[in-house]
Amino acid sequence: MKFTDAPSCHEHDRRYRPIVWELRAGDPPDVRRCSYCGSIHPQDLITLATSLITLEIADWKYGWPHKVYVTVGKHLLKFYSQHFVDCADDEACAAVNAVLTRVGLALLKEADSSVSWGVRRTDAN
């Protein structure tokens, strides 16, 4: 599996500061977060999925499933859908989708590096 070295989204803010994957105090060990939005790294989502975690799609306030809450013990983390573009090969994309299908979500990286989705909505969000 391959992933980008740095977060690929948030291009409009790169001119003001570097945007990197970082470790944060108080998080589970070795969980990287985007220094801009706080999303967990897609590879860490895959790794965390092998332990006892709870996943929940956030509300649809933007009209689409923009993030998934990831609960690991007492930690509430987020995976933002836009970070699906950080999956650099088909194997990585498939592994992230294998985790996200637990909540009925499937993401697709488009040719222009945008993200689209398919979802089985089970609630009235």
Features:
disordered C terminus; 3-stranded antiparallel β-sheet; alpha+beta; 7 strands; globular; two-stranded antiparallel ribbon; 125 residues
Explain what this protein looks like in three dimensions.
The protein has one domain (11-119). The protein is globular, with a radius of gyration of 14 Å. It has helices at 42-48, 90-100, and strands at 21-23, 32-34, 53-57, 67-72, 75-80, 105-109, 115-119. The relative contact order is 0.19. A hairpin with an 8-residue loop joins strand 1 and strand 2 (32-34). The model is unreliable at 121-125 (pLDDT under 50). Helices cover 14% and strands 26% of the residues. The strands form 3 sheets. The chain has a 3-stranded antiparallel beta sheet with strand order 3-4-5, covered by helices on one side. Strands 1-2 form a two-stranded antiparallel ribbon. Strands 6-7 form a two-stranded antiparallel sheet. With 125 residues, it is of the alpha+beta class. The N and C termini lie far apart (33 Å).
Question: Can I get a quick summary?
Answer:
The protein has two helices and seven strands, in the order E-E-H-E-E-E-H-E-E. With 125 residues, the protein is of the alpha+beta class.
Q: What is the fold's blueprint, element by element?
A:
Elements lengths: L20 E3 L8 E3 L7 H7 L4 E5 L9 E6 L2 E6 L9 H11 L4 E5 L5 E5 L6
The counted number of beta strands is 7
Q: List the quaternary state of the chains.
A: single chain
Q: Low-confidence stretches at least 5 residues in length (pLDDT < 50)?
A: 121-125
Question: In whole angstroms, how far apart are the ends?
Answer: 33 Å
Radius of gyration: 14 Å
> Which outline best applies?
globular
Number of helices: 2
Helix content: 10-25%
Mean pLDDT level: 84
Biggest sheet: strand arrangement: 3-4-5
Proportion of beta-strand residues: 25-35%
Count of domains: 1
